[in-house]
Amino acid sequence: MLLQLASDQELFQGHLQEQRFEHRMEVVLDEEIGHVRVVTLNSPRKLNIITSKVVARLAELHEKWENENGAELIIIKGTGRAFSAGGDLRMFYEGRADESWIEVVYRMYWLQYHIHTYKKTLVSIVHGLAMGGGASLAVPTTFSVVTEKTVFATPEAGFGFHTDCSFSYILSHLPGNLGEYLALTGARFDGADMIAIGLATHYVPSEKLPELEKRLTSLNSGDKNVVKSTIEEFSIQVQPGEKSILHKRSLIEKCFSKDTVEAIIEFLG
Q: What EC number(s) would the UniProt record show (predicted)?
């Protein structure tokens, strides 16, 4: 009993320390460099998960920069080993009493629509994990750069939720029945897979990312053709690896081309 109490106290103290650390740090960093704006997701210890604070700040910055004549190119990236591992499910659990989660969902969906219809040039540098709502900040950008470390997934399927944050739209526009496959299985794709099916525009080796970002900021312009050609200087052509599920496209089409989920499950059984 005493051991259990000690363990619970350690967990509680650890949770408090984590909250204090997060409170002290800025979870979203932003820079203004000439006509270029850089936004950085900055919670590396939590894999840059999306909290209500992150959503509010991203929405504020995107709206501000879209209406700002001096902002022409916006770059979004993450610190550490993740771009963003997705939404913080704890904020929904903790907000259930006062329904504050509804405001977070509204702001997030507004942000997604805003990214899809953005008037300025957006570049996402997607290094590391990019999952669920985190990936939805990157896939719809004008140019999305992935690396050999990129891991994409919509893990909502794992707990019975629909593909969230505009992915019901994005996945439905993938070739064949890949969208149904990803939405129902939560399968992971790497950077080369993302390029192959159109979830990313450019593949850049991770060691070249610092120089790429330096070049993009030095452009001081949001001209899409100039930005594209600059990224292409650093990008390489890639094909799905030998273990990629994309080599089994015919099997995916056969299994996931049914009209209903029930029919798909029955066929798989």
A: 3.1.2.4
